[in-house]
Amino acid sequence: MTVGMTSTASETAQAATETTTFEGLARAGYVARGVIYVLIGILAVQLARGVGGENPDQEGAMRLIADQAFGRVLLVVVAIGLAGYSLWRGSMAFVGRTPEAGRHSALDRLGAAGSAIAYGTFCVLAIGILAGSSSGGKEPSSGTADVLGWPAGRLLVVVGGLVFLGIGLYQAYLGISKTFLKDSKTMYMSPRTLKGFTVLGTIGLLARGVTFSLIGTFFLKAAIEFDPKEAKGLDGALHSLTTQTYGTVALVVVAAGLIAFGTYSIVDARYRKI
Predict the structure, then answer these.
(1) Are the C-beta atoms of residues 91 and 13 closer than 8 Å to each other?
(2) 198: helix, strand or coil
(3) Helices of type H across 131-230
(4) Dihedrals φ, ψ of 172, to 5°?
(5) I want to staple 231 with a disulfide (CB 3.0 to 4.6 A). Which of 140, 177, 178, 213 is the partner?
(6) Which residue has the higher pLDDT, 2 or 27?
């Protein structure tokens, strides 16, 4: 009975991924993701210039959207896109295959599951901002302090740090190897579009790899020193660059890379294999 029910649910989910509505939501998700990363990059540039107001992270980007003319309407659209992206990645993890991309590996499905959870959280964050919530959740250091107090909590924080570090290295690998191109319908791109798309993806994924690696490093440092204050999220990781030698230059370079990743994601909304 259980096997039959699971099979039926999987078949139903797979059928849903083949509809035009689902494809539209998935592609809107790539646009929403791209917009968020472009805004994070802009906020990071402002941080480097010392004129920023919002933190250079997902919440800061969404608050920046909300502060614009018709911002609440735009944020509703972004929230729908984030929900679509989360749904798309969740279906990839659950079903294991998609109409255009075909069958996915176990590693791809695991990554898709994590991505679905993350972007589902960002969607909830956007809804919270629309509802007037003051914050989308705890600071990383607060959550890490809780975990460090658990039995084997230190080990869990180490595992979390290694996961972030692994994601960062994998993102960098995708950029350097250009294997990200296999997930897009490059055969429909003109030579000029393909060249620009490749450059944006390479630079963007490298920048994303740097930020994830920094977050992972801070989590590992928090576990080693048993100090939750060392744990930092995306905004803390970008802030940390300003304390280093040539840190402002490094921050601008990473910010430009995040803007490139966002632009790549927006373009990929058209060409992604759904």
Answers:
(1) yes
(2) helix
(3) 140-148, 153-177, 191-225
(4) -65, -40
(5) 140
(6) 27
Return the bridge partners of 97, or none. Answer: 103
Determine the 3-state secondary structure of 189 from DSSP: coil
State pLDDT tens for residues 162-176. 999 999 999 999 999
Distance between CA atoms of residues 33 and 30, nearest Å? 5
Q: How confident is the model at residue 141 (pLDDT cuts 50, 70, 90)?
A: low
Pinpoint the alpha helices (H) of the chain. 2-17, 20-49, 58-66, 71-95, 106-130, 140-148, 153-177, 191-225, 234-241, 247-271
Yes or no: say if 222 and 231 are a contact pair by the CB < 8 Å rule: yes
Residues comprising the chain, all counted = 274
H or E, element range at 102: strand 102-103
55 pLDDT band, cuts 50/70/90, is confident
Q: How confident is the model at residue 1 (pLDDT cuts 50, 70, 90)?
A: very low
Position of tokens 């995306």? Answer: 234
189: which residues sit within 8 A by CB, 6+ positions away? 197, 271
Count Cβ atoms within 10 A of the Cβ of residue 76 and give its class: 0-12 exposed, 13-18 middle, 19 or more buried: middle
Q: Encoding tokens for residue 248?
A: 């402002």
Please choose, from the candidates 161, 216, 184, the residue with its C-alpha nearest in 3D space to the C-alpha of residue 30.
Answer: 184
